[in-house]
Design a protein that fits this description.
Blueprint lengths: L2 E3 L15 H5 L5 E4 L4 E4 L10 H5 L5 E3 L11 E7 L2 E7 L5 E7 L45
Antiparallel strand pairs: 1-4, 2-3, 5-6, 6-7
């Protein structure tokens, strides 16, 4: 469900040095600054990876998503927000009923992620082989089939 900015709820992150946080945090550089309003907007929603980093960072809850028909029934609205370390989904159905769901996120504090934690040192002698790092152990197989030359 691609994210987009509600321009009426967005205040362009006034008082924050880097400007709109959705522009700053988007890993795909899809959120850009609208020169006419100085607010963020998703320039290519069809390429949105739906990571919701913008939802987690928006202090105004101005981020919305366009729901897919298999998740959001026709005429319903869905609003994600970041609440107490979880993504909260507020769904308003076209008959007025509302439901709320919460899911934890696996975000670590800034600067604390260690991508190599728990990994052994790579075997540099395998660098020119077709094996990827950690194979065959991560695949839980004794050996990885390789093409015959």
């Amino acid at each position: 469900m691609p994210a987009y900015v509600d321009p009426h709820a967005c205040n362009a992150c006034v008082g924050i040095d880097q400007g709109p946080l959705c522009v700053y945090i988007c890993p795909n550089d899809l959120m850009v600054l609208d020169p006419s309003s100085s607010k963020g907007f998703n320039q290519e929603p069809e390429l949105c990876s739906e990571c919701y980093a913008c939802v987690k960072r928006c202090p105004q809850d101005a981020m919305h998503v366009r729901g897919y028909a298999d998740f959001v029934p026709l005429g319903a609205e869905v609003q994600p927000s970041y609440v107490d370390g979880e993504i909260q989904w507020d769904i308003t159905f076209r008959d007025g009923r509302q439901q709320q769901f919460r899911f934890p996120v696996r975000t670590t504090p800034e600067g604390s992620a260690n991508a190599h934690e728990g990994l052994t040192e790579p075997d540099m002698s395998l660098l020119r082989t077709p094996l990827l790092f950690g194979e065959p152990g991560n695949l839980e197989v004794s050996n990885v089939p390789t093409p015959k030359r």
